[in-house]
Amino acid sequence: MNNKTITFLAAAILSAASASAAPDTAKEAAKVRGIITKVNNHWQQTNPPETRSFWDNAAYHTGNMEAYFLTGNEEWKNYSERWAEHNEWKGAKGTDRSRWKYDYGETDDHVLFGDWQICFQTYADLYRILPDDRRIRRAREVMEYEMSTPRNDYWWWADGLYMVMPVMTKMHRITGNKKYLDKLYEYVLVSDSIMYDPDEALYYRDAKYVYPAHKKRQREERFLGARRRMGACRTGKSAQGRAGRLGTPPVLHRQICAHGRCCGEAAATRRLLVALHDGRGARSRPRDQRHGILHLWAAVGASTTAI
Questions:
Q1: Are 210 and 195 in contact, with CB atoms under 8 Å apart?
Q2: What would the pLDDT profile of 269-293 be if each residue is shown by its tens digit?
Q3: 30 φ/ψ sector (left φ>0, alpha ψ -120 to 50, else beta)
Q4: What does R_g of the chain's alpha carbons equal in angstroms?
């Protein structure tokens, strides 16, 4: 049997397999879309959009926008627009920069706290649909002021990575200002330094949970629920051990989006963390290699189009 015959047979087999799988894939996609529609419609029918722009509402709107990109449902986009208008396209609304803070807080002075910045993700998405400077004016003011300061420990807890890293790549895409990517890299290195435990090959929710402070506590107390765990897995047989029981390779919040793939900044974050600690030598990976992967995140995020 010559090479041409082998190539033809292989192509025929692959074509047949794809054809047989297509109906099942389409059926499953329709089912998933139906569930998304049912759940999201119910949410919006029972929850008015006029709520604050803190993370507890803003995180939903990042998902709502992805659902809009998937389905094209204009009512869903309008729901997020009404929420943005209600909040004047702002997070925390403090105007005195000398009072701006980034420790935990729900006041208008906590402008630099990531829980008040996640809303900028949705504002940036809406800006790209209908460019209007008013939609990102506050985001630019806040983020560009933040980047002008000498501080680099703004992302001191795990959730902050999901809250703000996508803001940086979205704003870079809109403005072309490379400083967004450079500062993202700088900030995430600090996050890596304060949350990563090289002895355990684990990321902790924040620096308070890193050994040795918790050496006397039970292993299960390292993480207070799945939400406080970025996740990691160890290498070799120990993957079945204590860390292996704690979860899958590192993953932040996943998003469902168009074309059956994770897209945009959330997927870039996921790929970053999986690359950092995917169970293939995470424990022994040199720190400079991990830093190289962190730097790569910016390029991945910047080159990934969400719409």
A1: yes
A2: 444 444 444 443 444 445 555 555 5
A3: alpha
A4: 22
